[in-house]
Amino acid sequence: MTTSITNNVSDSININVNVKIDVNRPRSVEFLHEGVDTQDGAGVKLTRVLTENLQQRLDPYLMLDNFKSENPDDYIAGFPSHPHRGFETITYMIEGRMRHKDSAGNEGLLENGGVQWMTAASGVIHSEIPEQEDGAMEGFQLWLNLPAKDKMNDPWYKDFQSADLPHFTTNSGVAVTVIAGESNGVKGAVTREVTEPTYLDIHLPAGTSFSHNIPATHNAFVFVYRGGASIEGQRVPIKTMAILSNDDDSDGVTLTAGDEATRVILVTGRPLNEPIVQYGPFVMNSQREIIQAVNDFQNGRFGEGT
Ligand code: MN
User: Fold this and answer.
1) Most CB contacts within 10 A, which of 84, 91, 242, 254?
2) What domains lie within the chain, and their CATH numbers?
């Protein structure tokens, strides 16, 4: 069980003298991307922010979906029983309740501010069904690739309630939840050795700034879901993704909120530089492995459905 960490940046410096929070050579925005409105599951309306054409550019990330609606017709059908193989899914529920069941015997209720981290690896069949008939449903699902050597490992799964997630508040009042990786000396709920994912939810009061160190070789993007931000003078409007440039000598990013309270997610990771072959819910390294995945699924080798 993780414990919640609440402290501010000064405390973090005191507990870890090696922490380096200064960003001297911040990344700029390479380009903005709006994503496409689509449907998935049994008809859930969502915006696919990280689309398939960006998989190489944002390696090791494969997909980011943003769902947000107050109309139950947009989400009520959920995502009935379906398989995954070869990667990890990270679902972050901003508001709403969703029940998860899978073929490995896991079941959990994901709600307001909680995270579900599922490593599908060699294969799971799961369902993701809203446990509400009205009200708002808002959140993100991010797909993180696995290195070739780990794609056929056993599946893994963990739910984190909002209070279990490490978070900190800076002196200027910026509140940060560290879902994965590390920021300003605060370790996240999940770490991964090969892809080194960092996943932050950052709430900036109007006019404030926040800096975070990023290794120059890692790919990184920001998505604004409230207010509006700017990065090195480039305005990033709401519902927009900013792909950050990979400058050889850069050491991080500095985000600044506009004249209203702003919320963004910041996602970074070390690229795998391996072939990416996707067929729907299967992401492997070759066509042969995709055929094997389909064959294994059809022959019941992913376990029982949900
Ligand atoms: Mn799924």
Assistant:
1) 242
2) 15-298 (2.60.120.10)
C-alpha of residue 84 to centroid of ligand 1, in Å: 7
User: 292 exposed, middle or buried (CB, 10 Å; 0-12, 13-18, 19+)?
Assistant: middle
Tens of pLDDT, residues 273-304: 999 999 999 999 999 999 999 999 999 988 77
AA letter at 233: G
Q: How far is the CA of 125 from the centre of ligand 1 (A)?
A: 8
User: Distance between CA atoms of 139 and 46, rounded to whole angstroms?
Assistant: 10
Structural tokens at position 195:
């892809």
Distance 40 CA to ligand 1 centre (A): 10
Query: Nearest-CA neighbor of 30 among 57, 55, 62?
Result: 57
What does the alpha-carbon distance between residue 114 and residue 38 come to, in Å, rounded to a whole number?
24
- The angle subtended at Cα 143 by Cα 142 and Cα 145, nearest 5°, is 145
Average pLDDT, integer, range 22-26: 92
